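Data deposition worksheet. Section B asks for the primary sequence of the deposited chain exactly as it was used as input, without tags or linkers unless they were present during the calculation. Section C holds the resulting structure in token form. Section D is free text for depositor observations; keep each observation to a single sentence. Incomplete worksheets are returned to the depositor.
Section A, Depositor: J.P.
Section B:
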Amino acid sequence: MRCPELSMFRPRSSSSAVLLLWLLLATAAMGAWAADAGRFAIRTVFTHIEGGVIYLNADVDYELSEIAREALTSGVELTIEIQIEVVRDRRLWLDRDVASLLQRYQLSYQPLSERFIVRNLNSGDQMSFAELPAALEHLGRVRNLPLIDDALLRPGKRYEIRMRAMLDTRDLAGPLRLISFFWGDWRLESEWFEWPLQI
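Section C:
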């Protein structure tokens, strides 16, 4: 259920962020939010080699919790992070990290144009969407992401790729960041998805 008071509120300063925090708490206390905790899940992942570089492709399902959706349409920018690791399977020893990659995106809402903006924080590229589901679907399609040069991998060794997606709350305004630490609906992250790297 949408909260009209929050939809009309556009935080632009730290004092307005505090007000938004109290509005969120008050609305939750009155039971305005149903049990809609959201969910991040990695659906499919595959890699291919081209020109000596291993590229990653993945499909991720992003379902924001209702509190995150309300915060987004009230002017709070959300940061979504994809963490990727290449590890060498050493069986009797701890796996050794070979490479790691952090892909970050910012999701925001522009009330004047009524558009949702997805910005790639690594490249600066951005796209706008009329509806939130379309923006989340775009976010979930990772295509041809350069992962690692295959010259860095030793022939005959076993490697695995690990990947997860999460809502990064470190960039939230102070009061919201504090409440997100305790409030489970803000802790959105997928399980680690692991698969063998074929080289």
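Section D:
The first helix runs from residue 4 to 7.
The longest strand covers residues 96-110.
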